Amino acid sequence: MHLVYSFFVFLFIQATSTAYQMIKDRIEADKLLKEKENENLKTELSFLRSQVSPHFMFNVLNNMVALARKQSDQLEPSLIKLSSLMRYMLYEADEDLVSLEREVEYLQSYIDLQLQRFGNKVSVKLNFSEIDADYEIEPMLLIPFVENAFKHGVSGLEDAIIEIKLRAIDNHLFFVVSNNYNNQIEEIKDKTSGIGLANVKRRLQLLYRSTHQLKIEDVNNSFTVSLQLNFHK
Fold it and tell me: Structurally, how many domains does the chain consist of?
């Protein structure tokens, strides 16, 4: 009887030990998989950011060329503003998150540069209001929407209008960019066409997943992008 009892105790210990080892191995495997996924995520985000910066800089430098050709007295202040943008892109955009206030300053600088370029050809209506806390956001997440509006909403229009609204309340961001456009003008596609919006869609999927909503409407020569997201806690 004692031998039988000892045998069952031995089997129990063996089974427990085996189960413990299997659970331990599974936890370790899950941990390694999670680390790999996080590393892949960082790699992909790094690649996406590397796409944003050259694409954006290419467009801004084109603005500088346009001002230089006009021998505009706005060239010097534009270069100073461009320097501020580059400082943000080079030294702050590598952070996982930046303050929403800093991101909005970046947007404002970009808009100012575009207004210096286009002058009275475009009317920009800004409404940056109701920011009720010190929120943080993925850097350079909002700029592609504004950049897209200028790229497609100015050419061939006498009354180009771009409207930009931003609110941040109760841990939620509400961001809307709309522009009219001339559908009679056939745009010449270049290699960078579509990079901006496709890029930001992918970044939103990676970073905000189910905590964001992106709506794009194209109705009656009016293009509107609406973004809602929850800030990271």
Answer: 1
Dist. CA 176–CA 69, nearest whole Å: 33
Q: How much is the mean pLDDT over the chain?
A: 78
Residue 228 burial (10 A CB sphere; 0-12, 13-18, 19+) = middle
Asked, for residue 111, whether it belongs to a domain, the answer is yes
Domain, as residue range, for 148: 47-230
CB-side neighbour CA atoms (13 Å) of 87: 10
What value does the CA radius of gyration of the chain take, rounded to a whole number of Å?
26
225 inside domain: yes
pLDDT confidence tier of residue 168, bands split at 50, 70 and 90: very high
> According to the model, what pLDDT value does residue 135 have?
93
Please check whether residue 122 lies inside any domain of the structure.
yes
- For residue 27, being part of any structural domain is answered with no
CATH number of the domain bearing residue 196: 3.30.565.10
User: pTM above the 0.90 mark?
Assistant: no
* Choice between 55 and 205, residue whose per-residue pLDDT is larger: 205
pLDDT by residue (tens digit) across 129-141? Answer: 878 888 999 888 8
